[in-house]
Design goal:
Blueprint: H1 6-11, H2 24-32, H3 45-68, H4 70-73, H5 77-99, E1 109-112, H6 119-146, H7 150-173, H8 199-203, E2 209-213, H9 218-225, H10 228-231
Helix pairs in contact: 2-6, 3-5, 3-6, 5-7, 6-7
């Protein structure tokens, strides 16, 4: 598959982006550099929800693989329960986006070969993903607020808050201070600006990446959803856009 770029998502073409996989610090150097750049044209709503749906599908695929690899990752019972709760929330986000007309841009993903057997690598990569998701949803919040769509702005802020909870827990798994920020990182002007950060997971362009990894089946989703009450998962909170 050819690389996916911001232009790809904005125009529907499959132009190559040529983004290379780089280190964790370099990736966040990229995202923080946004603060010095001028904001360009805003993503449109369809681009936002399509990219968000892709991220949520990737996240649920990622967490299911972690659940299935609990022994190899050295996850204890409480950590597996967290992964299952995270999985449910990512699927709830995906279902909401699909109901709004979103279509994931890709439906299979690529991962570093040892991602689900190396706890330290898993923590690092998951923190990268969750931090990227938070930044992307904050970008969506800004765009919807500017467009005078407060229901969508509040909803994307709700999702960003949950992704930040995931980030905190995964930092704990990596033996780092979970609550290490006064403010969630606002790293992108647009949701599509997050694409280069996660490029290799979408197209397998990173060195040592394997796949594709298929997303969860309906049966796998149902099985974990059936555990929600036992996990103490709160299913009563609604997205603001649905209230």
């Amino acid at each position: 598959m050819k690389n996916l770029s911001r232009r790809t998502f904005l125009t529907g073409s499959m132009a190559a982006a040529g983004a290379a996989t780089v280190g964790f610090n370099s990736l966040f150097g990229f995202s923080r550099a946004f603060a010095q750049e001028a904001m360009g044209e805003n993503d449109d709503t369809q681009t936002i929800i399509n990219l968000a749906a892709t991220a949520e599908l990737f996240a649920s695929t990622h967490y299911l693989a972690a659940i299935n690899s609990a022994e190899a990752l050295g996850l204890d019972e409480s950590e597996v329960a967290y992964m299952k709760a995270a999985f449910i929330s990512e699927r709830d986000h995906l279902d909401l986006l699909i109901s709004l007309g979103a279509t994931p841009v890709v439906t299979e993903f690529y991962v570093p070969e040892t991602l689900f057997s190396d706890r330290a690598l898993f923590a690092t990569i998951t923190e990268l993903a969750e931090t990227t998701f938070v930044s992307a949803y904050l970008a969506a919040t800004r765009i919807f607020a500017e467009a005078g769509a407060p229901a969508f702005a509040v909803t994307t802020a709700q999702i960003a808050a949950v992704e930040a909870e995931h980030r905190a827990f995964i930092r704990e798994i990596g033996q780092l201070l979970p609550n290490n920020q006064s403010y969630a990182q606002f790293g992108f002007a647009n949701v599509s600006d997050a694409v280069p950060v996660l490029q290799a997971f979408l197209d397998g362009s990173g060195e040592g990446f394997v796949g594709p990894v298929a997303p969860p089946t309906d049966e796998e989703v149902a099985a974990i959803r059936a555990e929600a009450e036992m996990l103490g998962y709160d299913t009563t909170v609604l997205p603001y856009a649905a209230m």
